[in-house]
Each structure stands twice: as C-alpha cells, then as structure tokens.
Structure to design on (145 residues):
C-alpha cells in the first residue's frame, strides 16, 4: 500500500483532512480517520502537513511516535476484524467489556509491540504463538480484576 514513511504520513493527513471536510472516504481512509478521531492529542500533528512528514519522534527524547501508535491501532482492528490470530476477537471483546474498546486496543498494542520488537531484535518473523499467549495472559489478568 505505502512504500515509505512519508507516504504513510501524507495518507494520514489526507484522510483526516477529507474526514474533517465531510468528504467521502475510501475504506482505508475511513480506518485512518477513525483512529485519528480517537486520538485528539495527535490531531494537530496530523494536521501540520509537511511538518508531520518531517517530524522525528526519538524514543530517547521521550517522544511517542503518533503515526506508529495509530498504525498499531489499525493493525489491532484489522486482526480483530478477521480474527487472526484465531481467538483475538474473543480476547478483544472480553477486554473491551471491562476496559472499553480504545483501552482494550492500547493493552493489546503492548503485546503486539513487544512481539514485533523481539522479532526485529532477533532478525526473525514475529511468532504468532508467542503473541497470542501474551494476549491470552492479558485477557486472563483482566478477567481476574
């Protein structure tokens, strides 16, 4: 879909601008706009045009990358929609019932991010079984509360 960071960031800006203007959105633009809408703290960044494209968000400076964060939301939503890995939809529904949908996604993002970080560090594909086990433990811990 996108070949580089700049294209992704421009797609966020374009989708959000169309949504704010009330223009019709393609399915991918709708997904982006929904996530931006859910994150008012990032809307000014997305609306900043080329400044958003050029912005750096170094972790060592304590800066969260809003595009990475919102991209994780989109990934979680797509995984839940297709129930892949199998069982993730049930986990999401259990978490959302206790925490609300957005907070459920935030908790699940932690599992996804850790799984992807390990895969990158070890130069291997992400392990779906490890990822699902993290999600399962997360849901079990939530069920205990």
């Amino acid at each position: 879909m996108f070949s580089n960071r700049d294209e992704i960031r421009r797609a966020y800006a374009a989708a959000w601008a169309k949504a704010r203007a009330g223009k019709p959105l393609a399915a991918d633009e709708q997904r982006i706009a929904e996530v931006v809408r859910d994150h008012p703290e990032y809307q000014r960044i997305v609306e900043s045009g080329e400044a958003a494209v050029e912005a750096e968000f170094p972790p060592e400076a304590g800066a969260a990358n809003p595009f990475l964060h919102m991209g994780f939301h989109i990934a979680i939503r797509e995984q839940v929609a297709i129930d892949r890995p199998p069982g993730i939809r049930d986990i999401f529904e259990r978490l959302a019932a206790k925490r609300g949908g957005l907070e459920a996604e935030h908790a699940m993002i932690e599992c996804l991010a850790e799984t992807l970080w390990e895969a990158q560090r070890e130069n291997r594909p992400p392990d779906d079984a490890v990822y699902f086990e993290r999600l399962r433990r997360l849901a079990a811990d939530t069920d205990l509360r």
The mean pLDDT is 94. Residues 45 and 52 are 6 Å apart (CA to CA). The radius of gyration is 16 Å. The chain has two domains: 1-64, 83-145.
